[in-house]
Amino acid sequence: MEPLQHVRSRTAVLAATNVDTDQIIPARFLTTTTKEGLGKQLFADWRYLPDGSPNPQFALNRPEAQGCRVLVAGRNFGCGSSREHAPWALADYGFRAVISTEIADIFRSNALKNGLLPVTVDEASARWLLEHPGAEVDIDLTRCEMTLPTGAVVPFPLEPFARHRLLHGVDELGFLLGKRGEIERYEAARPW
Question: How far apart are CA 47 and CA 52, in angstroms?
């Protein structure tokens, strides 16, 4: 996992509310156990027309959304099933952060485990972002703050252990493996 300290990017906006994990990555694409390539199927039922060509009306297919590393979404993003493929697909597509007023708990947990930063903001900030697609934001994970183009600084909550793992680019297993020496010394000092 790549360390994440700062994300400075234009935003792609998907204003829909209650976007569930089946909309993020439809179930028919869950046949893989690897993360690579899932970005092609991200929002597949919305991104592509029945003939397989890109839907020009879908937000991510618009030219101004290309290269954006931050997705702004409507309320209750990532609800539904607990599929880990949803954050895998978002990250493989190129997103490093998702911003919303409400992000489903299981999606949030899966995102944090896979290097995707879920940013929960207040209603006024979310409304501004939804109304200004392509706005460049600066997300500083060291301070847990996002700066809008207006100069407004928006704090966001993040559990300290998750923040530590993102800043250092380690998942939970990687964190534990990094403590291997301490664990071995502790066990060696204890008679079993």
Answer: 9
pTM as predicted: 0.91
Beta strand ranges found along the chain (DSSP E): 6-14, 70-73, 97-100, 117-120, 136-140, 145-147, 153-155
Instruction: Give the pLDDT score at 30.
Output: 87
8 A C-beta contact, residue 86 and residue 107? yes
The domain made up of 6-188 has a fold known as Aconitase; domain 4 (3.20.19)
Per-residue pLDDT tens over the stretch 98-112: 999 999 999 999 999
pLDDT for 176: 85
Tell me the residue type at 102: E
Q: Starting at the earlier edge strand, list the strands of the sheet with 97-100.
A: 117-120, 97-100, 70-73, 6-14, 136-140, 145-147, 153-155
Residue boundaries of the structural domains of the chain: 6-188
Helix (H) and strand (E) counts in the chain: 8, 7
HEC-encoded secondary structure of 1-37: CCCCCEEEEEEEEECCCCCEHHHHCCHHHCCCCCCCC
How far is Cα 115 from Cα 54, in angstroms, rounded to an integer? 27
Would you state the pLDDT for residue 83? 87
Residues of the chain with pLDDT under 70: none
